[in-house]
């Protein structure tokens, strides 16, 4: 593979020559599944770009329980917080497959690029705004929703991202119970029970290789009713 930044959405405004120049200043690396690309609280400052594959942003409780914060696919980036403020890393980033390739850009290169390209600086600010909004929503869900409803909310989030006709969605591959549990701070058993209940209610249907969300609006109503009632905390 020839290292390049053609797949990085942030750099779509750059010329091929500019992208090639940036690539020469970065370290490209292929990761095995489970590799820690960034360790929480480390003092590294590089910004990473996902050339192919997917990475997961996670943190760990004192008991060692994994809490998934976000999945970043090819074309995305991570590590910008420490480059911007100089503080230690706030989370771990883990490769999700053997085909994951990242490019590590030194923080000084990244900061010089933002200073020279206001459009890229604005794109970074929008990314940070998205992260704040996601964090606010997650805090509210953990404060207001019970475990069952948090599973509903996570399925709703995934369904809206994959919506086909506005009211149905096909989640493919089938969401892994442990992944959902990690995202919403519950157990795999709870996720399995909630999915069984939703299937009996006709809201979801599992096929051979996908999970069909049959009624996004009804699922959204279930979530919003509890969010609005300030009840169901567990």
UniProtKB/TrEMBL annotation:
| Record keyword Phosphoprotein present | no
Keywords recorded for this protein, A-Z:
DNA-binding, Transcription, Transcription regulation
SUPFAM superfamilies of this UniProt entry?
A: cAMP-binding domain-like, Winged helix' DNA-binding domain
Q: Does the keyword Magnesium apply?
A: no
Cite the InterPro entries for this sequence: cNMP-bd_dom, cNMP-bd_dom_sf, Env_Response_Regulators, HTH_CRP, RmlC-like_jellyroll, WH-like_DNA-bd_sf, WH_DNA-bd_sf
Name any one GO molecular function: DNA-binding transcription factor activity
Q: Which GO terms describe its cellular component?
A: cytosol
UniProt cross-references to Gene3D superfamilies, sorted A to Z: Jelly Rolls, Winged helix-like DNA-binding domain superfamily/Winged helix DNA-binding domain
Q: What is this protein called?
A: cAMP-activated global transcriptional regulator CRP
Ranges for domain HTH crp-type come to 145-217
According to its UniProt record, what is one Pfam family this protein matches?
cNMP_binding
Q: Where is the Cyclic nucleotide-binding domain?
A: 10-131
Which organism does this sequence originate in? mine drainage metagenome
This chain is encoded by the gene named crp_27
């Amino acid at each position: 593979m020839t290292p390049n930044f053609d797949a990085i959405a942030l750099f779509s405004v750059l010329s091929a020559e500019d992208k090639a120049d940036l690539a020469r200043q970065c370290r490209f690396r292929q990761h095995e599944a489970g590799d820690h690309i960034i360790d929480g609280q480390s003092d590294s400052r590089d910004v990473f770009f996902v050339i192919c594959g997917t990475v997961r942003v996670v943190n760990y409780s004192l008991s060692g329980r994994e809490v998934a914060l976000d999945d970043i696919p090819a074309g995305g980036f991570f590590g910008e917080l420490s480059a911007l403020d100089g503080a230690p890393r706030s989370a771990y980033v883990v490769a999700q497959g053997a085909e994951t390739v990242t490019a590590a850009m030194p923080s000084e290169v990244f900061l010089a690029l933002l200073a020279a390209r206001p459009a890229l600086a604005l794109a970074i600010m929008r990314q940070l705004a998205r992260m704040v909004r996601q964090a606010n929503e997650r805090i509210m869900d953990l404060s207001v929703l019970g475990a069952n409803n948090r599973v509903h909310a996570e399925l709703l989030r995934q369904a809206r991202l994959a919506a086909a006709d506005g009211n149905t969605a096909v989640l493919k591959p089938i969401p892994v119970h442990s992944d959902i549990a990690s995202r919403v701070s519950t157990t795999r058993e709870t996720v399995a029970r909630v999915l069984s209940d939703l299937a009996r209610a006709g809201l979801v249907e599992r096929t051979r290789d996908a999970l069909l969300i049959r009624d996004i609006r009804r699922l959204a109503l279930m979530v919003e009713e509890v969010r609005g009632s300030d009840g169901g905390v567990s």
